[in-house]
Amino acid sequence: GQNIDQPTEMTATEGAIVQINCTYQTSGFNGLFWYQQHAGEAPTFLSYNVLDGLEEKGRFSSFLSRSKGYSYLLLKELQMKDSASYLCAVRGQKTGGSYIPTFGRGTSLIVHP
Amino acid sequence: GAGVSQSPRYKVTKRGQDVALRCDPISGHVSLYWYRQALGQGPEFLTYFNYEAQQDKSGLPNDRFSAERPEGSISTLTIQRTEQRDSAMYRCASSAETGEMNTEAFFGQGTRLTVV
Predict the structure, then answer these.
(1) pLDDT tens, A77-112?
(2) Least CB-CB distance to B101: which of A4, A44, A101?
(3) What is the pLDDT of residues B7-25, one digit of tens each?
(4) Of A4, A2, A6, which Cα lies nearest the Cα of A85?
(5) How far apart are the first and last CA of chain A?
(6) Cα of A105 to nearest chain B Cα, Å
(7) Burial of A64: CB neighbours in 10 Å, binned 0-12, 13-18, 19+
(8) Could you say which of A48, A97, A104 has the minimum Cβ distance to residue B42?
(9) Which of A24, A27, A37, B58 is a plausible cystine mate for A85, CB 3.0–4.6 Å?
(10) Residue A103 in contact with partner chain B when CB distance is under 8 A
């Protein structure tokens, strides 16, 4: 089975930094995604980590530790438009044999002025 | 097309009826994925295709659910004898390569299915 855990909700102030954590337990591991989903919209890709370490892309960074089953998404210089749900998705092996990602329930981030 | 297109956007059906949900992936994308998303939850895997071949259908909840992609482009997810518990947002995604979503996937706007 696969288990992905992330906080349900977080709040932060405009201009601040926020870290969204994701822990996982999977059968096999082949990478971890972060997706952003605004209310009523489709998920959109943010990052993909396969190896341990930090990947930086503009205001967003994603970190992975495979040995700890842990990842985080770091958002800097928060803007109001960053208010959204952030989905952690892990490529663990499914019962059908594939490594199609399993998504967590998402972390709803609320950015206030 | 410019993005993943799904139709209809909204579908209300009576319990016991069959429904067919359509997904038109980004032109040239070889992999297509079906997910289901309940309100406040992350997407739940249903099935996926490389070209016309269904590779993994282990996420389909029961045998009332089926999917096809006969020409390796447009896909249809069919739910027979719908039940109220089937009500959800059904999302399709596509990606350019065959690596079991090892690259960015693009999601459609989804079909909101309501079974009454």
Answers:
(1) 999 999 999 999 999 887 777 888 999 999 999 999
(2) A101
(3) 999 999 999 999 999 999 9
(4) A6
(5) 41
(6) 4
(7) buried
(8) A104
(9) A37
(10) yes
Find the CB nearest A100 among B4, B101, B107.
Answer: B101
- Contact between A17 and A74 under an 8 Å Cβ cutoff? The reply is yes
Give the residue-averaged pLDDT of B85-98: 94
CB contact under 8 A, B57 and A96: yes
Residue A51 burial (CB count, 10 A): 8
Amino acid type, A17: I
Q: Compute the distance between CA of residue B74 and CA of residue B27 in angstroms, rounded to an integer.
A: 10
Phi/psi at B19 (5° precision): -130, 150
- Checking if the pLDDT of B92 tops 70, the result is yes
CB spacing of A94 vs B58 below 8 angstroms: yes
- Alpha carbon distances (Å) from A66 to A24, A69, A71: 9, 5, 8
CB neighbour list of residue A79: distance below 8 Å, 6 or more residues apart = A14, A111
Residue range A52-68: average pLDDT?
Answer: 96
